[in-house]
Design a protein that fits this description.
The chain is built from 5 helices and 13 strands. The protein is α+β, with helices and mostly antiparallel strands. It has 2 domains: 52 residues, no CATH class; 141 residues, Jelly Rolls (Sandwich). Strands 4, 5, 7, 10, 11 and 13 form a 6-stranded antiparallel β-sheet that branches. It has a 5-stranded antiparallel β-sheet with strand order 3-6-12-8-9, with no helix packed on it.
């Protein structure tokens, strides 16, 4: 450290009108200037300078590598439940109904894979019940349309199984009114909250009126 005597003469002359005395001197300790970053880097070892100069590069791992991607969706295996009371038939025998279903599916599909089509003749109160599995990570939608049924409804429910004793539970219900119905249309599909295959049933019901109706299952 360097010690210097700093005499504030001008302040005393201006304030007191007299010359300052030696006891008015103020000792001020002045520290030498600190080394700059450049000087410090100049004295650093080559390895230290290299480490300081090397930029940090962040490596991003694609999301596809961080989590196993699901394989392409495949339509679930659907079977007709013996509890059905409607009379199934081939949709090809009802061209107008087939066109109506195709149009509804086109507006609600939203990139989903097309699954099986099921059609039946209904009296008021009849149901068509289909059993199907919902795989973990998959989304399910169902769309349906009728010709002369005034109120057509759809329900998705958990189906109790002997190997998986679980109480029946309603998972989703159609909220539209009229001769068409949908569960999870427009990309708002139902996704199973369970980490294993969930047995479920889709029920199409002629709540009011009678006639023919058809549905198609969509999955992604």
């Amino acid at each position: 450290m360097v010690r210097r005597s700093l005499v504030i003469a001008s302040l005393f002359v201006a304030a007191c009108g007299s010359e300052p005395s030696p006891r008015d001197a103020v000792d001020v300790e002045i520290a030498p200037p600190s080394a700059t970053a450049e000087e410090t880097a100049g004295h650093a070892t080559p390895s230290a300078r290299t480490s300081a100069a090397a930029p940090t590069v962040a490596t991003q791992v694609p999301a596809a590598q961080t989590a196993a991607a699901l394989p392409p969706a495949t339509p679930p295996a659907v079977t007709l439940s013996p509890t059905s009371t409607a009379t199934p038939f081939s949709l090809s025998t009802k061209p107008a109904l087939e066109v109506a279903l195709s149009g509804l599916v086109g507006s609600e599909r939203s990139g989903m894979v097309l699954g099986s089509i099921h059609a039946a003749a209904f009296k008021q109160g009849d149901t068509l019940v289909l059993e199907l599995p919902i795989e973990p990570g998959r989304c399910l939608s169902v769309v349906a349309v009728s010709d002369t049924i005034k109120e057509l409804d759809l329900e998705l429910a958990l189906s109790p199984q002997a190997a998986m004793p679980m109480p029946p539970a309603l998972l989703a219900k159609d909220t539209t009114t009229g001769p068409a119905a949908k569960l999870g249309g427009g990309g708002n599909c139902f996704k199973s909250p369970l980490p294993f295959v969930m047995p479920a049933t889709v029920t199409m019901r002629a709540t009011q009126g009678s006639g023919s109706a058809a549905l198609q299952i969509l999955v992604k």
